[in-house]
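Page header: ASSEMBLY MODEL / two components / 781 residues total.
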Amino acid sequence: MKANEKNDNAHLTTPTRLTGAEIVWATLVGEGVTEVFGYPGGAILPVYDALRKFPIHHILVRHEQGAAHMADGYARASGKVGVAIATSGPGATNLVTGIANAMLDSIPIVCITGQVSSKVLGSDAFQEVDITGITLPITKHNFLITRTEDIAPAIRHAFQIAQSGRPGPVLIDITKDAQQASAIFDFDAAKPKAYEPHPMLSVLDRSLQDAAELIRASKRPVILAGHGILQSNAGEQVRTLAERMQIPIAMTLLGLGGFPASHPLNMGMMGMHGESWVNDSIQNADLLIACGMRFDDRVIGTPSTYSPNSKKIHIEIDPAEINKNIKADVALIGDLRQVLEQLLPLLPGRDGSAWLNTIDSSKGTAAVRDIKNLPDSGHLYAAHVMHDLWRITEGRAIIATDVGQHQMWEAQYYHHELPRTLITSGGSGTMGFALPAGIGAKVACPDREVWVIAGDGGFQMTASELATIVQEKLNINIAIINNGYLGMVRQWQEFFYERNYQSTPLVSPDFVKLADAHGIPGLAVRDRGNLEAAVQAARSHEGPFLLNFLVEQEDSVYPMIPAGKALHEMIRRPGHNPLLERPEDK
Amino acid sequence: MLHTFVAYVEDKPGVLTRVASLFRRLNINIISLTVGHSERPGVSRMTIVADAHDLAGDRIRASLHKLEDVVDVDDIGRAPNVTRELALIKVAATAHNRSHIFELAEVFRARIVDLAPDSLMIEITGVESKIEGLIQVLNETEDRVLEVCRSGKMTMRRGKHSRGVLRAMGAGEPEVPKPVNLPLDTGHDNFADNI
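Prediction written out in full:
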């Protein structure tokens, strides 16, 4: 390969005849893509063959699910579109979980799959699977491309769809013959029609006035900040609204980081594992201002008991979310940042100290039981790990979490100061997400400190990506919260199934040895006393490092709202809290 | 209740699946769905009748709009409209008992479009109640209905009429598509109790 071949982007400015495979890469280059995550195979081979001519770095994954999660983590950390590539058949179906995960969390990714030749489509050819049919309900849109000249317009359209409105995944299935044939590539001519916003997006003047009136009249308002605060980059506007009107903010899981945790008006996470005073303030509120969130069932408990005495202002970009779970008194349908910019001029400042004091006083003993105020009994609890990680990294690292107890502890005890620093699977709850998503985040932000936090169960679902870390020489720190159980399921069995721990205890490999087999150094941590030194060892090591935290086995996440219960019916931290044990209790 | 939507969609392979799949995903039964060319080149027109919660209309309309291939959606609701359905009905009839079916067809403004030694075919166009009425009468007169083929509803909003005309038609006030900002009762309180 000639040196100048790789940087020759002349085809972007002059229409050139290229093969379909080359058009795939040329279009991606034109869209600003510099990294893709993928796995080759028969039906996508022409595309892989053409890669050497283009300035795109391909990260070879160990399983296509990892490719989709990496593209997802890449998109969450950078705000750009993540790209995953796979072959037909099993390669494509392995992407499915990752695509569904991106759909439920509205993450912009573009997946490109190879497909059997158009002449044999529908004939059950080798590795033929109807992937556009399979992914129809879990993509914003998908394309089956059988003609070379359609490739560039489809990819450009896919990038527009993935990022516009409420973002989401798009899949492009390209037949092998379309990759092999050639066509004139004209990047500019392939530009999609201008994006037309959803016709039901409407911020009526009257609705803005109504919203402002509700805010001015409210005595006990709460802002509910969701993922939209990040997607729309509306942190400043939400801050202005909160500070000017003295309104406390409760965050959804996916909103964390969108507003600094240390801000005095930030109460923290709401919902199933939110702190009691956060949920109580929502239940007692007279006005909820929902900013880019969708009243997910993990946030509201039950619709009929949710914040019964409050008016609701729902600011949301997807009209299909309005009145879906919770009735809106005023709906402002549009981009959160734009809506708030229209709303803020209608709101003069005011004094909200009475309500803030009420919330403050309701923290009561819940706050005292917080880990920060606990005696050190020497036992190692997951909460300790999260708390110390937060303290040591000053809340500024990018954390990719998996799903389950550790995910909730992370959300409770790692106080994110910066947007796009929590990479977690919210809507879908996909175990195995953390490791590949963390890889995607590190590829997107190579200069940032990235931690993968996973349970012993979820880690084993995608542990094969350890080899990807090594092959890519990525400096990622991995913390396994190892309690020997599928912890969250065990917790449900403890609370709701009479401690019948059916199929939740699990045997794991020695994770430090597993890391060692990959050439990754690691340490096991059993005592709180060794925690900080281990974390610092990982941080100071150039390259990946794995910490296996052997934590209390039957610890539970508190507080918790049981499914089907109201926000105020939460299970509080037990009076006899293992976290409160003193050394002499042993 | 029955909701009637008119959707303009791109005339491309798979679009029908995308629309139908949306209703499946929302667990809503489609009562009828007709599709054909519209006045716009490359754009088909669907009339979709679906049985859903009284206040589900806005969400269905919004969700239809989210489909990339959907160009425009109208929730007809109770707006003044003309709705028609076509039915072909094959009835067992011989030379001995044909004549009263001719009479019935006359009353219902239906036409006989095929006549065989042992059966005849009726074509009827109209509102659903008219078609149901004919089928019911045929059944009650013990004429054996052999086959029924119905097109499903086709709906078009009426043009601009004065209030007086609308009142005379019993159609009420003209209704324009509204933005979604009215409180709705979602009517469900049974969230998943899964982990």
